[in-house]
Write a sequence for this structure.
């Protein structure tokens, strides 16, 4: 039997990320809707949850997030465009919440 390759590890990590994202998107949608309303109103949102600190910022047509992983002193950041249409904007913000929480736990 051969040892798993780096390619195999990346595949399983990607699979885990997609699975976590999908689970969070369905199970946390109500919470994400509340958070999205606050973020869209204030332009900034900071959340400390389960040993992670999430910071979200809206600027122009972009959303950015930064996640500090307190348990291993690492962080991850991303920036994504968001549309002008309110409904599409809301969905993109909700998606960013799920993405940030999924990637934090990988």
């Amino acid at each position: 039997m051969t040892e798993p390759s780096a390619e195999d590890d990346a595949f399983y990590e990607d699979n885990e990320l997609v699975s976590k994202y999908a689970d969070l998107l369905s199970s946390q949608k109500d919470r994400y809707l509340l958070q999205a309303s606050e973020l869209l109103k204030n332009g900034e949102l900071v959340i400390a949850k389960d040993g992670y600190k999430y910071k979200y910022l809206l600027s122009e047509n972009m959303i950015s997030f930064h996640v500090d992983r307190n348990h291993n002193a690492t962080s991850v950041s991303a920036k994504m465009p968001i549309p002008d249409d309110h409904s599409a904007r809301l969905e993109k913000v909700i998606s960013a919440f799920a993405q940030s929480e999924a990637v934090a736990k990988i």
Observations:
- The CA atoms of residues 62 and 81 lie 4 Å apart.
- The beta strands are 44-49, 52-59, 62-69, 74-81.
- The chain has one domain: 8-104.
- The mean pLDDT is 88.
